[in-house]
Every structure is written in structure tokens, then in C-alpha cells.
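Before a colleague's protein record goes any further, I have to sign it off. What it holds is a sequence and that sequence's fold in C-alpha cell form. My question to you is simply how this chain folds and whether the C-alpha cells agree. Thanks in advance; the entry in question is below:
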Amino acid sequence: MAELLNQQERKAMKRLAEELGAAMSMEARGIDEEEQLQVRLQQQVDEGQLARLPYLEAVMKESLRLHPPASTLLPHFCKEETEVAGYRVPAKSMVVVNAWGMGRDESVWENAHLFQPERFVAGGPDSHIMLGGPSNYQLLAFGRGWRGCPGRNLGLTMASLVVANLVHSFNWDIDHGASTRR
């Protein structure tokens, strides 16, 4: 939510709200904004609708790229000597993967420091990347393979539902003139 709110023109927030509104068929009702807000507060996005929300999926991927649940993955031990990216890794070495650093690597991600969910939308430069997908290692928020997080699907589903319902149910904005100090 913080990344959606901190964008300059809130393009991602607006696009996500439009996608959610369309999925919940709000625009087709022809009611004014105040009535829409009342209806939205009564409706909730459910798990069955998540598959029809590709921009929400892109927002979640981008959020997990910038803010993985754990900054490093669980340590692994190297059974035999190997070479990774030109570095020699001796046998019996402990290897720790920096998921936070991988998500901000400028050699892998264009504009790595910016929140740009569009990179994961169909036709985007990284649309082929899946969370824990079989052929890519750029997005490892939950680890991979049999050592990956067993709660990945539940965690991603619940986080997606929370973000979807918060964006769908409320009109979000930040008062940029307000002081954050007390």
C-alpha cells in the first residue's frame, strides 16, 4: 500500500482501482460516487476473483521484488566446490542469498529503485517472470523448489486479498502538506 500511495501521480493505484471496479462491475451500475462508495464498502474481493486481476498480480510481484518478506533466504550449504558468477565457492561453504539486493540489482532490473508494476504486465519487459517460476531466479521472495516457503500460496493470496479490498473499499490519498512530526 505504501508503494501505491507514494507514487507521484498514483497511476498504479488508479489503474488497480479501475481493474477492481471493472471486476466488481461498479462502472456498469451507473450510480454516483457517494453511492458507489457505500456499495464498495459492502462488497469484498474474494479469492475466486484474483485470477481475473492481472494488474493486482503485477502490483504484488513488484511489491515483493522491492520488499521481500525476508531480506535473505535460508542458508544453504554447498556440497562440492562450484563456481557461481565467476566466484569460486569451496565445498561445505554456507551460501546466503540476498533476496533484497537481487530485487534492486540495476543489472537485472531497469529502474530497479522505482515501483513500476507495469514491468510484470503482459507485454512488459518482465512479464515472463513468475514468483518461484521454473526457469527464472530474479524474483525469489519466497525461495524456490522444495526449500521454498511452504506458505507461499497462502501468504500471496492473503496479501493480494488485503491489498485488493483496501484499494477497492476506500479512496486513498496523502495530504502532502501535513507534517509527519508530532
Q: What stands out?
A: The chain is about 35% helix and 5% strand. The beta strands are 76-77, 82-84, 87-89, 94-95. The CA atoms of residues 65 and 133 lie 14 Å apart. The first helix runs from residue 2 to 6.
